[in-house]
C-alpha cells in the first residue's frame, strides 16, 4: 500500500504502464499517489507499445512525464524499421528524455551484444541531435556503457546504479547523474552504499523502478512512488543528513536535468504516432 507522509516526492524512473498496475492504475495515479505527496514521476518507455502508453499517461496525469526509448531486452522483439522515427516524433510531441536505453549482458539469451550496442548508439546519437537527456540501463555491462557514454557524452542518468565508486566518479566527471533506488536499503547492499556515501549530492536522483525493486521492508511487493522517502531516509542515514534534504536535492536535480520547469503540460494523451 502507498505510504502516508508529508514529503513532496519526485520519482525519476517508473513503469506505470506495466501490467502490474492494470487493475488499479487510474485510482493509483489519479488519487492515491497525489494524496501521498507524489508530485513528479518520469515514466519510461521500453519498446514502441510502452512508449505510446507512457505518452498517454503523461497526457492524462499532469505530474507524469514520459521518456521514450528501446530497452536492450527489446532490441530484437519485433522492432519496426521506423522505430527511430517513432522516438523522434514522440520527443517532438512532449517526451522529456530518451529512455530506457542501454546494455544488458546479464542473461545468456539476451539479444546479441553487437545488436544492443547498435541500438543504444543510435539512441545516444538521437538524444544528442535533439538535445534530450538519456536514461541509461546498465546491467553487467559497465565497461561498454562507460565507454559509449565517454564517446557520446550525453546528458542524463544511469539508473538503478550497480557499478563501483570509481565508475560513479567517472560518470559524474562526464556530467551524468546517478539513479539510486530500493537496492540501497537491501541488507546485502555493499557497493551502492559506498557509492551513495561518496556521491556529490547535486548528482543524485531518486527512483523506484516501479513496480520493481521495492525497498526493505517492502521487498518482494509491488513498488510505487510513495516509497521514495524510504530510499531517501536510508541515504540520509548513510550520509549523516536529513531525509528532507535528500528529497529536496533529488527533486531539484530531476527538475534541472529534465528541464521540467520549461515543459508545457500535456493536454491530451499522445498515443498514436506509431
Describe this protein's structure.
The chain has about 270 residues and is of the alpha/beta class. The chain contains 9 helices and 8 strands. The chain has an 8-stranded parallel β-sheet. α2 runs parallel beside α3, α4 runs parallel beside α5 and α8 packs across α9.
Q: Give Rg in angstroms.
A: 17 Å
Poorly predicted sequence stretches spanning 5 or more consecutive residues: none
Q: Which term fits the overall shape?
A: globular
Q: Helical proportion? A: 25-40%
Give the overall pLDDT as a whole number: 94
Structural class: alpha/beta
Count of helix runs: 9
**What composes the largest sheet?**
8 strands, parallel
Oligomerization category of the chains in this entry = single chain
Annotation, overall tally of beta strands: 8
Please list the strands of the largest sheet in the order they lie side by side: 1-2-3-4-5-6-7-8
Strand content: 15-25%
Helix and strand run? EHEHEHEHEHEHEHEHH
What distance separates the N and C termini? Answer: 35 Å
